[in-house]
Protein 1
Amino acid sequence: MSETTTRTTNSEYEQANERAETPTTEQEVCPECGGPLVTDEERGETVCDHCGLVVEEDEIDRGPEWRAFDAAEKDQKSRVGAPTTTMMHDKGLSTNIGWQNKDAYGRSLNASQREKMQRLRTWNERFRTRDSKERNLKQALGEIDRMASALGLPENVRETASVIYRRALQEDLLPGRSIEGVATAALYAAARQASVPRSLDEMTTVSRVDKTELTRTYRYIVRELGLEIKPADPESYVPRFASDLDLSDEVERTARRLIEAAREEGILSGKSPVGIAAAAIYAAALLSNQRVTQSQVSEVADISEVTIRNRYKELLESDGVRDMPV
């Protein structure tokens, strides 16, 4: 075969490949009207959302072949394990031996079998942590999960805190610092990154370290890991405080307006965002004729009533309101 024929063959082969790939890119829109395509999973079809043209049918269903109507039935029929997660020291890949002393048929084990299973559980727990770093990580992630549960933080915050702690452990930032201190600092940073912050006092309440150690460790972790964390915004505390006090959406909107007015006046600088949010909630409740006491707000926000009184007056003045009762 000549060189010219070879080049022609290669060129035809490349053109054929291009033609074969072209429909894949064109299937993102309807070939008739150019409208967006949607997938109907129940019928296994891809149809145009505008004109209804069926672009593809008899698609492969990659889901399970069984149906489940509740969580228990789903767990019983499922043949796969849980997804990997950074909230466990081994990412959930190791095997757990169940605590129920029953066999595969649901029958109770006899005394000797129970003793044997207990020994197996003990050795299994020992083998799950191979070295001191894994034992450290296991303890820290348990602390993060405990504190997050007590503070009502969502799962994404726990995941982020776990990643921050893993990075600190990998970069050898723990020597000279307690596991509890670094775990608390990681959770505090993760909550602020996710815009669901908790105050230092709230963190200290559920943590096993004091406020001084928490702030010192937090600054060190943020500096060494280069975490990008914006200053706490008072508005991010407002929904939680309003919910805990069972106040209406009107109060929440008014509190946000007061905070925005105070920001424009420049009186937020250098003041605690928790105190500003609590005072805004108290002032907004009074303006909306929904009575709430300073002690109730103080208890929810975990700050003093004196702080609420001082910030409350400043917020009202920035909004042009005078002579409101204290």
Protein 2
Amino acid sequence: MSAAPDHRPTFADVSLAERLDKAMPFLLIPILVVLGFFAIGAPSSWLTLTVSGLAMGMMIFIMASGLTLVFGLMDVINFGHGAFVSVGAFVGVSVLIAFGDWTGATSLLLNMSAVFLAVVAAMTVTGALGWVFERVIVKPVYGAHLKQILVTVGGLIVIEQLIHVIWGPDEIFINRPEMLKGAITFAGAAMEKYRLLAVGVGAVLFIVMRMILRRTKIGLIVRAGVENGPMVEALGYRLRMVFVGVFIAGSALAGLGGVMWGLYQEVITAGMGERMMVLVFIVAIIGGLGSVEGAFIGALLVGLLQNYVAFLEPKLALVSNIALMTAILMWRPQGMLPVVKAK
């Protein structure tokens, strides 16, 4: 008996336009970088702005990745996500202040050890806070988007007020660890050491997240749950537990992003997370809700565009990201790399 013919489309059957359309989200970043080079003119300024934009984008990605996974898997619009950013920043900075001797030492090992302890503390506290937030605030309103918006915004306000009670109402200025201060010069461009570290941390985190989602069993369950939750439950998996785990992980990532953003800005406030939520939601929306790869591309686009526009025309910097989101959604209404859910 002869085998049934394979009717799947081959590479040759796919038109150039279709291949280009699929590849275009991945081409937007190099296209933007090249356009920025010609618009700025000076190679040294362009390189400095590009590194700054990549660093900003990586930190936004860290904060947005958890939010987009939570929405994609749990269908939860969590406006309280910004609270975890703020709490993470305050916990992390408190640890850095406690280890002031380490951060002030001219030793990279001691500096990075203090930062590591700050990150661990921030992720632990925000992960635990995320578990409580999901149990008490989010769980009763699953499936009701309007109620989710109302109660998560309320949760955000309550947590911000608790920050005022614990750490006081004033903003806290911080110094980066001694070996992360200053910049290095390359090809005539000054690149801050901390921004280079942020680029590296964001890139490693993206690779790790992608490997977990693509090559592990839990990652397979998460991706399958995003696309077809009822089928995953029908196969006997406790998707409810996966929901809670993803929410905790997303909250912990927000805490990590809060520490890194605080060191980036060198000042923290109770409302910093709330202000960051505008950029975080823009990234999650243009990337495609539920897509980590989309959030990564979207975050880099936002970071690069804001830095380029702020240099070329500062007055337009505030609206550049809204304009980017509008353009992306007019091109692809569901975002660049949306997760296709089963009907």
Protein 3
Amino acid sequence: MKETKAWYVNGGIGVVLIIFLVVWAALLFVQYMSIVLPAVLVVLALLLATGMTIVQPNQAKVVTFFGRYLGSIRDSGLFLTVPLTIRQTVSLRVRNFNSSTLKVNDVEGNPIEIAAVIVFKVVDSAKAVFDVENYEKFVAIQSETAIRHVATKYPYDTFEGHEITLRGNADIISDVLANELQARLTVAGVEVVEARLSHLAYSPEIASAMLQRQQASAILAARKKIVEGAVSMAQMAIEQLDKEGILELDDERKANMVNNLMVAIVSERATQPVINTGSLY
């Protein structure tokens, strides 16, 4: 099923025709006291009246005639279309679907809670009406299915930083979710405008343990940066002394200097200076 344009004309023409037929029927009845021809004209006027329809902005009317799809009306206003047709209204406005909080396992098997907001609109009214039973329920069910599927493809978080994660790559995850949703909802004539995660957290039963793991990982990462900086600073200090010839240090003195610098930089507490009045030997 694909949306097509239905036959319709300006509603003002329909109103004029209906009034003309009614007035003509009244004049014939008064002039000739005949019932047959005026009755036929009134029936024609009523028949035309069944074809009058009003379309609101950002809405479409799906027109069917005794089970046959005749097309859709997307223009807003008053129109005259085929009489005796059924016209079903479909909203073309942008809408939000806020999914419920789902409990799933990520790719590593950790239970997590996840929810998303889906922004969508109908772009094919015929598909939305005829290809699915109820396109709004279809969007809701397929959205939750896609969220579950995407959540099981990626880890919640990684402590090495070398892969895509649900928490660390929100934009990428949103694009993946939107693309998967679009593939599922095309059959219903729905376009996915945007998909964003609205809730993401570890399940309560493992949240405390995962928090400790994250804290430990953060401490290790910070320590690594501090050590790298300390080594770089010690290397720069020795190279500067050698370059300018301020001091001539043998390997043992260089090792002692590096040791002191490392202790001073890496230590969590403030270092206490010790003045050496003697010699290393």
Protein 4
Amino acid sequence: MTALIALFWRDLRRAWGSGALWLPVVFFLLVATAFPFAVGPDAPLLARTGGGMMWVAALLAALLPIDRLVRPDREAGVLDQLAVRGFADEAVAAVKIAAHAIGFGLPLLVALLPAAALLAQDATRVQTLATGLAVAIPALASLAVLSAALTANLKGGSAIGGLLVLPLAVPMLIFGAGMLDPSGRGAMKLLGAASLLLTVIGPFAAGAALRGLRE
């Protein structure tokens, strides 16, 4: 258990070290700054479409650091050492998911406020976005760690990883954007169900991928 706790804190320090803490913040602000240039200075249009764009940006922010989630540990032999000491791959994957969820999730929620202001989102929509993202962050982290485990042996794994998780992330994007529609009352429940399903399945799927790296 001590080794897993140490792994959690080490992954969290790696996520927030060398200025990486601000990566999701900068990414969100770049998206929020560039998007109005694409749609023009139409505030109502920005208000309608900006929320969906922020959900896409959240998915991409979760995938930005997948090259450092699993590959360094595989190359350094950390995964082999944990396996020899009897730790289940599913437990290792769960720890990595938790560390990644905190490592990118907290900066993501901080970046939400200035990004929402740039995209003409009112207070009600900002609150809805914050609630939806808080629910979805564990699932997005699960997809990122799963993608990192599947592509740890491949060069350019981040690009391939995005293609792998896109079909699984589509329901999250649909339900998350649906929450912003006044008529989408059931979207929050569907988002919560989808997030719970991915969060529960994620450690088992990523654990199986970690075992595959040793075979």
